[in-house]
Amino acid sequence: MGIYLITFAISTMLFYLASKIESNKGSIALSLIAMIPPILIAGMRDLDIGIDIFTYGYDVWNAACSSRSWSSFYSWYGDTSIEIGYLVVNFIVSRFSTDIHVFFAVHEFLLLFFILITAKKLKNRYLLWFLPLFFYLYFYNESLSILRQSLAVMMGLYVSTFIFEKKIVPFYIGCIICYLFHHSAAFMLLLYPIAVLVRRFRNKRITLLILIVLGTLVMLSFSQLIMNTLISAGIADAKYEMYVGVEGNKTHKVDLAFLASLTMMLLAFVKKKQRLFPDFYFTIFFTIIGFSMTLLGSLVEVANRAAYYIIVPLSYMVTETTIGNSKRKILLAGFTLILAARFFYLAITTQTGGTIPYKSMLLDFLL
Q1: Residues in CB range of 30: below 8 A, 6 or more apart
Q2: CA of 209: how far to CAs of 75, 198, 263, 281, 307, in Å?
Q3: How far is CA 113 from the centre of its chain?
Q4: In the chain, which residues have pLDDT < 50?
């Protein structure tokens, strides 16, 4: 666990320094340097770090390296449950190297790239260091395991910004691209209508809460029917049927505690006048929806997959909510402590998807 914490600290500090640079080119240059430590750790890890590497990752990579053309590679995996976006990334990287560690490094670079362009797009200097910090404590170790969905989720982070800009066409085009990397991204199609509801019922909070609760109950009651419909329509792969009815575990319960703590912290520190701002309502209700999805995930595993697309955008929504708040630093520090508590709890109790302890034969150490 120590190697992860050192890497996170070094990278976050460099991102923080980059946020202080007035020159855009200089800021980007230092941000790219800040990306190097986590990319190296991801790239040099052993093959038994993460679950999905041996589930499909290693086989897909070997097939890509063995194929002389895209058509021959696609003939191997085109009819399988592996999404085409992930296949394309494997194939392109395999044209330059046959070392799977290079693919690991490129994979991590892509995740951090989406974080960087999201922070730059929103033009909030706090985001340049807080988004990476959120990613490290919440999703970095998970991304070492769920190779395909991590690409879809972090791409979805950028795509979600179109919701708040009310750009429906770019948003849905982005959703389609995310879907090409992992079919769970189909859940993102609901985010725009949810945002419309939040805007519509912003002054009717009880009504909105009732809608969220009813929506969660409907999804729970008809989860099997919904999943079968999505599979029949070709939107979801048949493999997701096995997630329906699979019970959750304590990993999901700690996420409930994480989201509940975030909600209480926002209500405690954000002044009543600032609660009238749209950013606050989006943050609160997206947190509540993430809580509902995670609660549903304790009973239906597939909901946990969908919850990522709600929870990860909270990383920038929280910072946007605290603009102009005199207690902003306290809020961000509190949020960081909540994230850190979650990270340590999962590291101790679950090894975080088989990523702890860290192992690297290339570096010849176990930490």
Answers
A1: 14, 17, 18, 21
A2: 48, 10, 14, 12, 18
A3: 13
A4: 248-250
Question: What is the rounded CA–CA span in Å between residue 228 and residue 238?
Answer: 8
With beta carbons less than 8 A apart as the criterion, state whether 201 and 210 touch.
Answer: no
Distance CA 178, CA 47 (A): 26
Cis amide linkage into residue 357, ω under 30° from 0: yes
Distance CA 123, CA 146 (A): 30
CA 179 to chain centre: 14
Of 266, 320, 282, 262, nearest in space to 194 by CA: 282
Backbone φ/ψ region at 357: left (φ over 0), alpha (ψ -120 to 50), beta: beta
pLDDT of residue 124: 73
Q: CA-CA distance, 59 to 352, in Å (whole number)?
A: 23
| CB-based contact 266:283 (threshold 8 Å) | yes
C-alpha distances in angstroms, 172 versus 67, 80, 149?
A: 33, 25, 18
Joined together, the tokens standing for residue 133 give 């910090």
Q: What is the per-residue pLDDT for 249?
A: 47
How far is residue 352's CA from residue 354's CA, in Å, rounded to a whole number?
A: 6
Q: Burial-class residue 38 by CB neighbours within 10 Å (0-12, 13-18, 19+).
A: buried
